[in-house]
Amino acid sequence: EKELSEIISMLERAVGILEREMDKSGAASLAQLKTAGSLTEALTAMVQASVMKSADASRLTALVQSTQKSSDGDADEEFGAPDAKVYEGQSGSIIQTLQELLDKAQAQLDDARSKETSALHNFEMLKQSLTDEIKFATKDMNTAKKGLASSSDKRSTAEGDLGVTSKELAADIESKDGLHLKCMSKSEDFEAATKSRGE
To answer: Which superkingdom, per the lineage (predicted)?
Structure first.
């Protein structure tokens, strides 16, 4: 995005400079090698940044070269400044080409921003979804931990109750066994007493 923004800015400046120069002193000032050189530098930067297709690069290069050839040819034929009409069509064509490149670069920037916005939206949705999942999983885990703690408490209480009950049961069994022995002993004594009376 940064590279596209820089290229758009560069193209806008180039178009602005060309239009100002055409308005200010006619197309004749565009014959200078300096202008063609900066245009070539702009073209090179755009090609390296892969903003324009090779067809666009070739087209712009051809325009720059034809401008330079016209400038060199006119300089050889005449010693004065070239006629403004010689460069008018080429300058307009250069401006038109730069404007087309500017439009393409802006379209690519808009597309890149749209994709970035869409990707950011998708990321935010995924982030929210994962955050919600984590929140609910944490809530479920906390509920499970509370349930486990409660179960552990109940188990401890039950084990304590079981220990007390087991001791009471053992005491009851011992008491029952003692009572049973007493009953058996009394029963035997009663039977023996009954037999001795009956004799």
So the answer is: Eukaryota
pLDDT tens digits for range 17-38:
777 766 765 544 444 434 445 5
Regions of the chain with pLDDT less than 70: 21-22, 24-93, 199
Total Cβ atoms within 10 A of residue 151 = 10
User: Do you know the residue count of the chain?
Assistant: 199
pTM: 0.43
Q: The domain containing residue 79 runs over which residues?
A: 2-134
Report yes or no on 188 lying in a domain. no
Total domain count, the chain: 1
What letters, b where the CB count within 10 A reaches 16 and e where it falls short, cover 88-123?
eebbebbbebbbebbebbbebbeeeeeeeeeeeeee
- CA distances in angstroms from 9 to 5, 16, 96, 169, 193, listed in the order given: 6, 10, 16, 95, 130
